[in-house]
Amino acid sequence: AAGQLEPRVRTWYNPERRSSDFLIPGLMVVIIMVVAVQQTAVSLVREREQGTDEQLAISPLAGWEMMIGKLAPWTLLAFAELAAITAVGVWFFALPLRGSLGVLALGAALFVFCSLGLGLVISAVAPTLETANMLGLLLSILPAFILSGFAFPLGSIPVVLQAVSWLFPARFMVSISRGVFLKGAGIDELWPELAALAGYAVVVIAVAVLLSARRRR
Q1: At what angle do helices 101-125 and 187-216 cross, to 10 degrees?
Q2: Segments in the chain below pLDDT 50
Q3: pLDDT digits (tens, 9 = 90+) for 95-121
Q4: DSSP state of 9
Q5: Could you please report the per-residue DSSP string of 46-113?
Q6: pTM for the structure as a whole
Q7: In angstroms, how far is CA 89 from the centroid of its own chain?
Q8: What is the biggest distance separating any 2 CA atoms in the chain, rounded to whole angstroms?
Q9: Per residue in 50-61, pLDDT tens?
Q10: Is residue 25 exposed (0-12), middle (13-18) or buried (19+ Cβ within 10 Å)?
Q11: How many CB atoms neighbour CB 42 within 10 A?
Q12: Which candidate, 191, 183, 177, places its Cα nearest to that of 23?
């Protein structure tokens, strides 16, 4: 009849409600974080247990040169995973890429530094390989799944867990990834998340360096 209203629900940025459009940008973050955090922590602790860390310590290499050599493979692997997941998502799952690849790459670079720094912190405090493995899983997989907005909207989890989620970089990278892919967001919209990742990277790497120096002494 005339004058009646007909409600219609519209889903912004994913009107077809395809699960792949929602999951793939977040899955990218989970995979990168697990590889960067756990493998960095485990590999460095394994070097310490096998004694190769002491051999490198007496080598003519500077400390920063050794650190770059240890972290470069995981950095390159993380970016290879980013490129592969993006290509598979766009070509095989028709994932929209509405934003700038440059902004996505910048966010990914900062996120990789955050994750590598977290792995370095674990390697500095873990006494054994088993401990490093467990801490790596605890601080990478669980936060990336539960406290990042990947599987559950952050607004639907308890307030305490929402506060805890600020301690992990995955929540910022999920916002960046979904913003670039689905919303076409650029630096003007994503600068708070980018700034948070940059600050997080500086702090966690500084903490890792201090802990590693204290452990060597």
Answers
A1: 20
A2: 1
A3: 888 988 899 999 999 999 999 889 888
A4: -
A5: HHHHHTHHHHHHTSSS-HHHHHHHHHHHHHHHHHHHHHHHHHHHHHHS-----S-HHHHHHHHHHHHH
A6: 0.85
A7: 18
A8: 86
A9: 777 666 666 666
A10: buried
A11: 21
A12: 177
Q: Tell me, what amino acid is at 50? A: Q
Angle between helices 19-34 and 170-178 (to 10 degrees): 140
| pLDDT for the residue 194 | 95
- Whether 64 and 109 have beta carbons less than 8 Å apart is answered as no
Rounded CA-CA distance 164/187 in Å is: 26
Q: Give how far Cα 83 sits from Cα of 24, 25, 28, 101, Å.
A: 13, 12, 10, 10
Closest Cα to residue 195, out of 79, 102, 106?
106
The pLDDT value recorded for residue 133 is 86
Residue 124 exposure: Cα atoms within 13 Å on the Cβ side: 20
